[in-house]
Design brief:
Chain B: Residues 1-31 are annotated as: Disordered. Chain B: Residues 102-319 form the ABC transmembrane type-1 domain. Chain B: It is a multi-pass membrane protein. The structure holds two protein chains of two kinds. Chain A has 19 helices and nine strands. In chain A, a hairpin with a 2-residue loop joins strand 1 and strand 2 (54-55). The termini of chain A are far apart. Chain A is globular. Chain A is an alpha/beta fold. Chain A has two domains: 52-188 and 343-417, D-Maltodextrin-Binding Protein, domain 2 (3-Layer(aba) Sandwich); 191-340 and 429-468, 3-Layer(aba) Sandwich (D-Maltodextrin-Binding Protein, domain 2). Chain B has a domain at 87-149 and 181-327: MetI-like (MetI-like fold). Chain B starts with a helix and ends with a helix. The chains are: A alpha/beta, B mainly alpha. The interface between A and B is large, with 75 and 82 residues.
C-alpha cells in the first residue's frame, strides 16, 4: 500500500512549475537593480543638456554665472555627522535661513556605509540628488564624469580664494581645468601610530619608529620573531595600504594623465610585495585579516597589533575604548621617499540637476565660509583640518602643550599640513581597487609569484580603465 | 462536470444565450436588480489593477529592461548606452572570473540546499510534539531568522577568526596545533559561509515543516505503528512522503536563496570575496562588475544577471523534476 496520501494533482504541479519560474524571475530582478538612459552631458544648441537621463535647466547648462536671489527649498546631505554634530548643523542652517529668508534647508544625513555611493548613484539615476551634497573624491569624480556636478568655476567665477591654495588647486579632475567640487574638511596620510609597549616587548625602540614602508616591514619581521604569536605587526589586508604605500614610496602607480596604470613596472613596488609576502608567511600579520574588512581600530585598541591606523582621528576611539593602549601610543610621521603627507578630503558638490542652484551655491558657500568652518573644527571631537586658510589660525592648531598622543598627532599633522599634497588617483575606482587587491592577496598568501600577480593586477586595472572609457 | 439540459433546469441562473433554446453556450444573465447592478464588467479589472500595475512596474518592466540592458554598454550613472549585440555575453563566457563565481554559486547551492531541506525537517520533528517548555526550543531555533544577517555574520567572523572561541577551543583540546584558517583558506571560507547560511535558514524552513506536519493524518502513523514500523520507518515512510511537497518548495526556495548569497561572503571574506576573490559568488561578481559608479558596466552586469536567472530557473526545474520523479 502506498503511504503517500498527498500526491499532487496536475494543477499543483503546474503551479509548482509556475512558482519556480516566478521565483527565478524574482532573483533576476533582485540581482539587477541597474539601468539608465542617455548620457549626453552637453548642450549642442538643439537638444537639451543632459546628465544621465536628467535634463538640465538652462541656467545650469549655459556658460553664464548664476544670478538672482537665492530662494526655494534645498536639501543638504552630510555623511555620518548627524549623531555627533546635530547642534552645529542646526545652528548653521538657522543662521543661513535667517540671512536668506526665502530659502528653506532640509538637512539629511547618510550613514556613509559601504553602499553610500550606490545610494547616491540611485539618486542620480532618479534625478533626485540632494542640492548640496557631501561626497568623497571617488564619488565626486563619478558624478563629474557623467555631468552631475555644477561647474563652480563657471557658475561662481572667482570663488575659491578663501581656501588653502594647495587644496583648492588640487581639486581639478583629470581632463578638466575647472572646479566642480569645493573642499570641506580633510585629513592626512603620512602619520603612523604604534603601541610603544608592544614595540619594547619585541626589542624595538619606540623612539626610533620606521621612517619608510619597507623599514616598517623589516620591523614587522622582528615582531613575528619575538611576539610568540601573542600579537602582530598590523592587519594583513593590502586594501588598507594601497595605493598610499606606493605613493609614499614615490613609486609610479599611474601615468600623469591617469590613462594607464604602470605599477607593475616599478621595482620598488615589486620589492614591497615580495617583502609583504615574506612577513605574512613569517606570521607577522594575522592570517585571517588577509581579505576580511577587519576594523584596524579594534585590533589596535585590543592590543593585537603594534601599528594602528595611519590617521589621527582613530586615536580618539582608542582613547575612549582602551585608555591603557591610548596612553602607550606613540605617534610619528612616516613619509618615506616622497617626503610629504597626502591630503584626503571631504568635498561639497552641487548637483547640476538641482532645482535651486542659486540657493544651493549660496548655502555651500555659507557652509564653507571661514567663520563656520572655524566653528566646526574647533570642536575637540574633530581631528581633521578645515579647508580655509583663516580657520587654521586657532589655538587648537598651535597649542599642543597637553603632551597626549592626540596632541602629538595634531602637532605633527599641522607640521605636515603646510606641505601636504593631494595625490588622489581618481581612476583608482572601487573596481580597480578590488582587482588589484585580489591579485596582491594571492601573492601575499603565496599562491602566485609577486611579479606575476603585479602584472595581472596591472592588466586587470588597465582593462577596467579601458572599459570605462 | 458536463452540463446537461436537465442540469440547466436545476440551476436558476443558467439560460440559453440564444432565444429558442437549442445548444447555445450558457451564460450568466446580467443582473438588472439588487447587488448585481453595482457590479459592472470593469469592476474585477479595477480590483486586480493595483496588483497588475505593481507587478508590471516592479517585476515585468525591470526584467525586460535587464534583458535589453544586457545587449548594451550601459553604465550605472551614464545611462542606457549603445547596442553592442552579444558582446557582453561573449565577454562573459570567456571570463574566468565569471566561471569561478558560477562554480562557487553552484557548489554553494548543491551543499546548502540538501542541508536546508533535511535538517529543518529533523528539527521540526523534534519540536513538533507538545511537551512542556517546547515553545522555548521553537523560539530558540527560530531566533537566528529574525537577526540581521550582517550582525550574525559579524558574530560568526568573531567566532571563526584565529583567536576566536572556536580556534581557541580546538587548540585547547589538542585537535590542532595552529589556528584553522576558516577565514583565509578559500575552501574553508566557502564552507563557513555555507554553514552560516544553513544555520540562519534552519528556523525559517522549520516553520514550513511544522505547518506541513500538522497536515499529515495521524491515522497513518497509527497504521504504520500497527504494521510494526518504528520511529525511523515512520519518519521515512509516513513523514517524508507527507511533507514531500513542502520539501520541494523548500528546495526551490533555498536554492534561489543560495544562488543569491552575498552578505555572508562579504562579511566573512571581505570586499574582494575572499583572498584573491576566490570565494566570489555570482551576485558578488555582478556587484563588482556592474555597480561601480566609475568603472561599472551595467550592460555586462545585466548579462551576468540573465545567466544567474537561467541558472536559478534551471535549478528550480531540476528540483521539480527530481520531486516529480520521486513522486512517481
Amino acid at each position: 500500500m502506498s503511504l503517500n496520501p498527498l500526491r499532487p494533482p496536475a494543477c499543483r504541479r503546474r503551479a509548482a512549475r509556475a512558482s519556480a519560474g516566478i521565483a527565478g524571475l524574482s532573483v533576476l530582478l533582485a540581482a539587477c537593480g541597474v539601468g539608465g538612459g542617455g548620457s549626453s552631458t552637453s548642450a549642442d544648441g538643439d537638444s537639451p543638456a543632459m546628465a544621465g537621463q536628467c535634463e538640465l535647466s538652462e541656467e545650469v547648462a549655459n556658460d553664464q554665472p548664476l544670478s538672482g536671489e537665492p530662494s526655494g527649498t534645498i536639501t543638504f546631505q552630510t555623511t555620518a555627522l548627524k549623531e555627533s554634530f546635530s547642534p552645529y548643523f542646526e545652528s548653521l542652517i538657522a543662521a543661513f535661513e535667517e540671512e536668506y529668508p526665502d530659502v528653506t534647508v532640509e538637512w539629511q544625513d547618510d550613514p556613509g556605509d559601504a553602499t553610500f555611493t550606490q545610494r547616491l548613484v540611485t539618486d542620480a539615476q532618479a534625478c533626485d540628488l540632494p542640492d548640496v551634497v557631501n561626497v568623497n573624491q571617488t564619488t565626486a569624480y563619478a558624478l563629474y564624469r557623467e555631468g552631475f556636478l555644477l561647474d563652480v568655476s563657471t557658475k561662481a567665477p572667482g570663488y575659491g580664494d578663501e581656501f588653502i591654495p594647495s587644496i583648492w588647486e588640487s581639486l581639478v579632475f583629470p581632463g578638466s581645468e575647472d572646479h566642480y567640487v569645493m573642499p570641506w574638511y580633510w585629513g592626512l596620510t603620512g602619520l603612523q601610530t604604534f603601541n610603544t609597549e608592544l614595540m619594547t616587548q619585541v626589542g624595538l625602540d619606540p623612539a626610533a619608529p620606521p621612517r619608510s614602508v619597507l623599514e616598517q616591514f623589516d620591523m614587522a619581521t622582528t615582531v613575528a620573531q619575538n611576539s610568540g604569536g601573542d600579537f602582530y605587526a598590523f592587519a594583513a589586508n593590502p586594501a588598507q595600504r594601497v595605493p598610499s604605500d606606493w605613493q609614499l614610496m614615490d613609486a609610479a602607480v599611474i601615468n600623469e594623465d591617469e590613462s594607464e596604470f604602470t605599477f607593475a613596472d616599478d621595482p620598488k613596488i615589486l620589492e614591497w610585495l615580495e617583502k609583504y609576502a615574506e612577513i605574512y608567511a613569517a606570521g607577522a600579520l594575522p592570517k585571517d585579516t588577509l581579505s576580511s574588512d577587519v576594523d584596524v581600530t579594534q585590533l589596535y585598541s585590543a592590543g593585537d597589533v603594534v601599528w594602528g591606523s595611519t590617521n589621527a582621528s582613530f586615536l580618539r576611539y582608542v582613547q575612549e575604548t582602551n585608555p591603557a593602549t591610548y596612553e602607550s601610543t606613540g605617534v610619528a610621521s612616516l613619509l618615506d621617499e616622497r617626503g610629504t603627507a597626502f591630503q584626503e578630503g571631504q568635498l561639497i558638490g552641487i548637483p547640476s540637476t538641482s532645482d535651486n542652484p542659486v540657493a544651493a551655491l549660496a548655502f555651500a558657500q555659507f557652509l564653507l565660509s571661514p567663520e563656520w568652518q572655524t566653528t566646526f573644527v574647533e570642536d575637540e571631537r574633530i581631528s581633521n583640518f578645515p579647508s580655509t586658510s583663516e580657520s587654521l589660525d586657532i589655538p587648537k592648531f598651535s597649542d599642543f602643550s597637553g603632551g597626549t598622543p592626540l596632541d602629538r598627532a595634531n602637532e605633527i599633522s599641522v607640521e605636515l599640513a603646510t606641505d601636504a599634497v593631494n595625490t588622489f588617483i581618481y581612476n583608482w575606482s572601487d573596481a580597480v581597487n578590488s582587482a588589484v587587491v585580489s591579485e596582491l592577496q594571492l601573492a601575499i598568501a603565496g599562491d602566485k609569484p609577486a611579479a606575476e600577480a603585479l602584472q595581472d593586477a596591472e592588466d586587470a586595472a588597465n582593462e577596467i580603465l579601458a572599459n570605462q572609457g | 462536470m458536463t452540463i446537461t439540459t436537465s442540469s440547466v433546469k436545476q440551476v436558476p441562473w443558467a439560460a440559453r444565450t440564444r432565444s429558442g433554446g437549442g445548444t447555445g453556450r450558457l451564460r450568466r444573465p446580467r443582473s438588472t436588480a439588487g447587488a448585481g447592478m453595482y457590479r459592472p464588467w470593469w469592476m474585477p479589472v479595477l480590483w486586480i489593477a493595483p496588483t497588475v500595475i505593481v507587478i508590471a512596474a516592479f517585476g515585468v518592466f525591470p526584467f525586460l529592461n535587464t534583458i535589453v540592458l544586457s545587449f548594451t554598454n550601459a553604465t550605472p550613472l551614464g545611462g542606457g548606452g549603445e547596442w553592442v549585440g552579444l558582446a557582453n555575453y561573449e565577454r562573459m563566457l570567456t571570463d574566468d572570473n565569471f566561471w569561478r563565481a558560477t562554480r562557487n554559486s553552484i557548489v554553494y547551492a548543491l551543499i546548502a540546499v540538501p542541508l536546508l531541506v533535511v535538517l529543518p525537517l529533523m528539527m521540526a520533528q523534534l519540536v513538533y510534539k507538545h511537551l512542556p517548555g517546547i515553545g522555548l526550543f521553537r523560539t530558540a531555533f527560530y531566533a537566528p531568522v529574525v537577526a540581521s544577517m550582517v550582525a550574525v555574520a559579524l558574530v560568526w567572523q568573531n567566532l571563526l577568526n584565529e583567536r576566536g572561541p572556536i580556534n581557541t577551543a580546538l587548540r585547547s583540546v589538542g585537535l590542532v596545533d595552529s589556528p584553522v584558517p576558516f577565514l583565509s583558506d578559500p575552501v574553508l571560507l566557502l564552507a563557513s559561509a555555507i554553514a552560516l547560511t544553513v544555520w540562519k535558514g534552519l528556523g525559517w524552513y522549520m516553520i514550513f515543516y511544522l505547518a506541513a506536519l500538522a497536515n499529515v493524518p495521524s491515522d497513518l502513523y497509527e497504521a504504520a505503528e500497527l504494521d510494526g514500523a518504528g520511529a525511523v520507518r515512520q519518519f521515512i515512510h509516513v513523514t517524508v512522503p507527507g511533507v514531500r511537497l513542502t520539501m520541494l518548495l523548500i528546495a526551490i526556495m533555498s536554492g534561489i536563496g543560495s544562488l543569491r548569497v552575498f552578505t555572508e561572503i562579504y562579511v566573512l571574506g571581505g570586499a574582494t570575496g575572499g583572498p584573491g576573490g576566490q570565494v566570489q559568488t555570482l551576485p558578488f561578481y555582478i556587484r563588482d562588475t556592474a555597480l561601480d559608479p566609475i568603472a561599472g558596466n551595467a550592460g555586462y552586469g545585466a548579462a551576468v544577471s540573465v545567466a544567474l536567472f537561467l541558472l536559478t530557473v534551471g535549478l528550480a526545474v531540476l528540483s521539480h523534476k527530481f520531486g516529480s520523479r520521486e513522486e512517481s
